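Worked example 3 (structure in, sequence out).
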């Protein structure tokens, strides 16, 4: 009668099978390590590329904001010259308007106290 623990295998078969499984696990872990290293390499490469794109976008946006600021500054200067000319043309009316606006603002602020 044959033993249930030794179903036709020799004594070296279980240790050989164990070695094969161990080698298989080792190969799997090596592949996993390589895959993780590749993943990090791609992730950092993507991060660097994304940072470069963000830097370029930020520089473009800064340039756009700077150009708009200069445009607004120039328009403001033109408007100031226009207001100065109107004040020079109508000094009494301008003084009365300024006094009226100042008086109204003073009354509004005085009520809040």
């Amino acid at each position: 009668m044959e033993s249930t623990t030794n179903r036709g295998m020799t004594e070296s078969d279980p240790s050989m099978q164990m070695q094969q499984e161990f080698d298989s696990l080792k190969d799997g872990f090596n592949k996993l390590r390589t895959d993780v290293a590749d993943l990090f390499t791609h992730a950092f490469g993507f991060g660097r590329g994304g940072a470069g794109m963000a830097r370029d976008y930020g520089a473009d946006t800064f340039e756009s904001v700077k150009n708009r600021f200069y445009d607004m500054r120039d328009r403001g200067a033109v408007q100031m010259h226009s207001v100065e000319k109107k004040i020079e043309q109508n000094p009494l009316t301008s003084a009365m308007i300024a006094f009226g606006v100042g008086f109204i603002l003073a009354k509004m602020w005085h009520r809040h106290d």
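Notes: Residues 13-112 form one domain. The chain is about 90% helix and 0% strand.
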